[in-house]
Each structure stands twice: as C-alpha cells, then as structure tokens.
Amino acid sequence: MRTRFQQGLDDLRARLLRMGGLAEQAVDRACQAYIDRDLARCHMVLEGEFQINVAEREIDELAFDLLALQQPIAVDLRFILAVTKINSDLERVGDQAVNIAERAMDLVELPKAELPVDIPRMAAAVSAMVRRSLESFIEGKAELAQAVLEMDNVVDRMKDEAFITLVKTMNERPEVTRQALDALLVARNLERVADHATNIAEDVIFWVRGADVRHNVAPETPLHQASTDTH
C-alpha cells in the first residue's frame, strides 16, 4: 500500500511539472505574441488553454484519490495540499496568458505606437519568477522559493511605473489611447502572473518547512493578533 502511495505521489509530482511547463509556455507565447503582434502565437495560447484546464482537473482528482487512499504522514500531507494549491495557481497563470493574447489580438488591428513602457523587460522578470517558483518545487528548496518572493516587489514597481506613464500618455496623446490601454492591461496581467508565482513559492515553503509565510505573518504571531495590530 505504501509503495502504491509513493508511486501516486511521484505521478502527482510529474503531472504538476507538466502542468507548470504548459503554463510557463503559455505566458511566454502570449508575451511574444504581444511584442511581435503575432496572431499565430495568440491562437496557440487560446488552443493551449484546453490542455491546461484538463491537466488541472486530472491533478485535483489524483490528489483527492491519494488523500482517500491512506492517512499521509505530515510531510506527504503538506505536499499534496501544496500541489492542489499550486495546481490552481498554474491554471490561473494560463488564464492570464489568454488575457494577454487577447490584448495582442486587439493590438494587431491598431496602428503601431511607441509607448513609454518596457513590456518585454517586465515579461522577462515575470517569466523568471514562474520558472524559479517551479524550480523551487522540483528541487524542494525553500531558499529558491524565498528568492521568488523577493522578486515580486520588483514586478510590482514595474507595474506601478507603467500605470503612471501610460495614464500620462493617454492624457497627452489621445490618438494612442487604445494601444496604451492594451499595454496597461498587459502590465496588469503580468503583475497577476507574478502574484501566482509568489503563491507557488509560498506553497513550496509551506511544504518544505511547514511554515505559512502568506501575508508576511510570522509563524509565531497569532493570526487574530496580527489582524488587530494592523488596525
């Protein structure tokens, strides 16, 4: 029974890694489609969403089966719970990729416009976060996951700067409002992908160390006390 259970855990890990590969590929394709105004890549992202959704359901079903098979020891239980949460975040990464692809499809219909925002730089930073969060899962290393958490602040600053400069551009150059709005939405989608990568990293830390690092609440701080202190 234990051997079968371990095989199930290995299968769960492999399936999640494939899911992660699909989600990472979707983001990269969507960003490149936006940068190159490439409709073919947009359609690849839209078609790939089905695969991601199917993978999400299969992983959840396997995780629930493993929980029902026997009572896992603490570290295995944390692993299964982390996988179900990471699975959900990866599906949402796929959704954000679709949103970016849709903005790219809108952009193709518009004249080219030079905008004061570096979407490729932001896309590269976000892709690195997704990749490193998955690497932290593959290697089971909390320190890699911690590095992802620190990268999130950089992406947040990029999004804030993009918002300020693009709103200013829309006010000063009304003729490029739609292009600037598309860029603003892409920056927002990328920031959300970064949030999901951060969630994945937090779940890896929970699995490896048994520590909940969400919301920057220290493990020794009671949640109700943390809530009271912020008022």
Please provide a brief summary of the model.
By secondary structure, the protein is mainly alpha-helical. Helix content is 84%, strand content 0%. It is elongated and about 65 Å long.
Explain what this protein looks like in three dimensions.
This protein has 231 residues and is an all-alpha fold. It has one domain: Methane Monooxygenase Hydroxylase, Chain G, domain 1. 84% of the residues lie in helices and 0% in strands. It has seven helices and no strands. Helix 1 runs parallel beside helix 3 (74-108) and helix 5 runs antiparallel to helix 6 (177-209). The model is unreliable at 217-231 (pLDDT under 50).
Fraction of residues in H or I helices: over 70%
Based on CA inertia axes, which overall geometry fits? elongated
What is the string of SSEs from the N terminus onward?
Answer: HHHHHHH
Rg, nearest Å: 20 Å
Count, helices: 7
Largest sheet: none
Q: Can you tell me the CATH topology?
A: Methane Monooxygenase Hydroxylase, Chain G, domain 1
* Corresponding CATH superfamily: Phosphate transport system protein phou homolog 2, domain 2
Total strand segments: 0
Mean pLDDT: 91
How much of the sequence is in beta strands?
under 5%
Low-confidence stretches: 217-231
Q: What is the name of the CATH class?
A: Mainly Alpha
Distance between the termini: 50 Å
